[in-house]
Design goal:
61 residues, 0% strand
């Protein structure tokens, strides 16, 4: 049963916010610039989003 679009967006948002929170905690622990970590977290999330929505050639979108 496919998810509703609103549910899918909510899951993606919560996943990104969790990833961002963990990244900021790690950046504080390692004393890295938090702004750079936010950018890297966003880029990593986009990569996961793109890879998660790609389909094999035989599978319709």
């Amino acid at each position: 049963m496919p998810l509703k679009p609103a549910t899918r967006v909510r899951i993606l948002l919560y996943t990104y916010l969790t990833f961002l929170a963990l990244s900021l905690v790690i950046s504080e622990t390692l004393e890295i610039n938090p702004f750079a970590v936010v950018i890297l977290a966003f880029l990593a999330f986009l990569q996961v989003l793109i890879l998660g929505t790609s389909h094999p050639k035989g599978d319709p979108p």
